[in-house]
Design brief:
Blueprint: E1 2-6, H1 11-22, E2 26-31, E3 46-49, H2 55-61, E4 67-70, H3 82-103, E5 106-110, H4 138-153, E6 160-165, E7 167-169, H5 179-187, E8 192-193, E9 197-202, H6 203-213, E10 222-225, E11 228-231, H7 232-243, E12 250-251, H8 254-271, H9 279-285, E13 288-289, H10 294-299, H11 307-320
Parallel strand pairs: 1-2, 1-4, 2-3, 4-5, 5-6, 6-10, 7-9, 8-12, 9-13
Antiparallel strand pairs: 9-11
Helix pairs in contact: 1-6, 3-4, 5-7, 7-11, 8-9
Length: 331
């Protein structure tokens, strides 16, 4: 099988790329910079330069491909970057889909649980939960729009499966993405955790399910790839216990959150670059993004490994690759 992977330098894409190679598949990666950075160094991949917004480049990259795993996206929880997100997350996805349709290749689209309905503290959401309640920031809007565009192409013959990963941790987080949370607990030991909660999973389990989706799964269907549902406060306590750091004192209250969000918005207006802590992000972390993965377990053989193992493995990887100080006798 020849697989084209977009977003191969990101957390999901890099794990998928490595797992495909381990399974003996041929892998082609589409990268904006033709020079392979360290995330792909030493891997037996065919690197094709190009941007997913470039139709000609995408069509060239798709030649001879059996399956395309589309993991490239602009990810930012905030109020800005709407134009860029639409160009990449929506229009870029359409271009990939049109090329896959022309090639007759199966497409696995890596979306997000952020495109789905929001879960509750006492009720996990699934694929059928009404798509209501999410903070309407550009990331949520564009991921939903991309999914809608793909479903509209199914009657035309598009062979697509959509997967919706939750909050992922694990190795090969080069950027890093969600691993920033673990790094922050180690280096900054923040005193207050966000008030809501999320579903936390291992990126390697997600990658395995994505590869299963290249030949399993029903066309046009969504599959949630989630994990253990727990509050951010409990998650940060688990991280602190594993890393030997001080656990958070408690949860961030509404007033502190409002001040933090407002301050982030004001700083973004003055600086021209919206920080990660902004009013949209504060609203998001107040919610309980709890999900269940029964459908993926049944149809994609999705498995969920213990969270503590995931966090330990991620910690080991970050230390080994210079994101955190090497372990010493003080921890």
């Amino acid at each position: 099988m020849l697989a084209l992977v977009t977003g191969s330098t990101g957390l999901v894409g890099n794990n998928v790329t490595r797992m495909l190679l381990e399974q003996g598949h041929q892998v082609r990666v589409m990268v904006r910079d033709p020079r392979i950075d360290r995330s792909l160094a030493g891997l037996d991949v065919e690197a094709v330069p190009g941007d997913i917004r470039d139709e000609q480049a995408v069509n060239t990259a798709m030649i001879g491909v059996d399956v395309v795993i589309h993991a490239a996206a602009v990810v930012h929880i905030g109020w800005t970057k709407e134009k860029l997100m639409h160009q990449v997350n929506v229009e870029g996805t359409k271009i990939i889909a049109q090329a896959a349709l022309k090639q007759g290749a199966r497409m696995v689209y890596v979306s997000s649980v952020d495109a789905l309905g929001v879960g509750k503290k006492d009720a996990s959401a699934n694929e059928e939960t009404p798509r209501e309640g999410k903070v309407p920031c550009p990331y949520v809007i564009t991921k939903r729009a991309a999914e809608d565009a793909l479903r509209e192409m199914v009657p035309q013959g598009l062979n697509v499966v959509i997967v919706n990963p939750a909050l992922m941790f694990g190795p090969w987080d080069w950027k890093p993405s969600s691993g920033k949370m673990l790094i922050s607990v180690v280096t900054k030991q923040p005193p207050l955790a966000p008030p809501g909660g999320g579903s936390t999973c291992d990126v390697r389990d997600v990658a395995a399910a994505i590869i299963q989706a290249t030949h399993k799964g029903r066309v046009g269907e969504n599959y949630i790839l989630a994990g253990e549902n727990l509050s951010y406060y409990d998650l940060w306590k688990r991280m602190a216990a594993i890393t030997g750091r001080r656990p958070p004192w408690g949860r961030m209250g509404p007033l502190v959150g409002m001040i933090a969000g407002f301050s982030g918005d004001m700083y973004g207006h003055m600086d021209g670059k919206e920080p990660e802590v902004n009013s949209a992000a504060i609203r998001v972390v107040r919610q309980y993004h709890y999900y269940r993965s029964d459908k993926a377990m049944e149809e994609l053989d999705y498995q969920i490994r213990p969270l503590d193992k995931t966090l330990r493995d991620a910690l080991v990887w970050f230390r080994a690759n210079g994101y955190l100080p090497a372990l010493d006798g003080s921890e």
